[in-house]
Design a protein that fits this description.
two-stranded antiparallel sheet, Outer membrane efflux proteins (OEP), 69% helix, 13% strand, 435 residues, single chain, alpha+beta
Amino acid sequence: MILLCIMHCVLCIGQGWTLDSCITYAQQQSYSVIRANMAVKNAEIAERSARVSMSPSINAGIGENLSFGLVEGVNNVRENRTQSTTSFNASVSMPLFTGLRITNQIKRTGAELQASLAEVESAKDDVELNVVSYYLQTLYYREMQQVQLRQLQLSEQLLERTQILVAEGRQSESELYEVEAQVAQNRQFLAESENNYRLALVDLCQLINYKDVEAFVSNFSSVSTDLENFQFSIFAPSLQTPDVIFAQALSNRPSIQAQQHRIEAQQYALREAKSDFYPQLNLNASWGTGYYHMFNANNPAFGNQFLNNGSEVVGLSLSLPIYNRMQVRHAVKRQQIALDEAKLSAQELTDRLYKDIQSAYYNALAARSKYEAAEKSREAGAKALEYATTKYELGSLSAYEYNEVQTRLHRTEAELTQAKYEYLLRIRILEFYIQ
């Protein structure tokens, strides 16, 4: 297992930290997933324990007593003497009928095991959704860094052209100072974006519980930002309606499945409590023998006493419940209340799931509209910059006005980047409910 984990980490580093590798690593390191797996182990033990409770229980014992004064000997005669008694016994007990308690107990623990397994998958899903959110946020800051870098490069190119125009006398020196101030400001913006990107990397690294932050940062740079990495398309022609998504989510959401298994387990727990209303029948068998040693007397050999003093007992015991101070009836009522609470929790979870899907659907629609509008705005800004560049080089546009056009383009690029990753996240959340 250790070797496989090491090989997985090496493979992740070799390929760069892709979204899938981050999700896989985070699920392996997540405390919530580890804790859910521990719950599964406990449920497995409980289920196995319930199954073997139908088998006989076998016990053996040995005892040694030293008696003084008036004691009972091997012939059941009480005499005044000192003797030691060694006893051996073995017993077998097997339940024949317990009001179907054991059967329902087996079914209850089996349902609880299935619920625990589903909760492991639910914990993994929660980790996956968090990683997707942080991962897209990191890519957003990285792309914003590239936007700021392009803006700085454009400003530096403008500075070079302005220096030429000032030298030719087509622009004043005040225009040059204006451009230099813009270049300095863009360098500041680039530094801030680089810092935001690095902080986002640290947050993602801490989220997946990867210890070597520096190695994570250096290997993340090899990750491509192509949309194919995310297993969903930003150009989806249409979105499924909330009702369709909800119908699919009811059948595949681990949290819903876990709650259904909890209801099933509680139903068997109720039947288990009702079993105490029925008689209990058990089969019992035992064997025992003893060795008596009287001091200052002739004693039969150990082997002879061991064989001659033996006794065997086989019997049935039937327990009839008559009056137990209403304990069974009250236990049944408590289990009925617990069943009603489980059903209420399932209904609450279902309602919340539908509301979450509705919110995710309309958020995705809004994000798509925002992305489409930002894309058109960016195209218009690029054309405006082309015209402004021509006017500026001809001297009919001031540096301040040119910077205003360039700043608007930069703002539309930033808005487009933000809208794109917001739309990616909203689409991913919708796919989360139907995968």
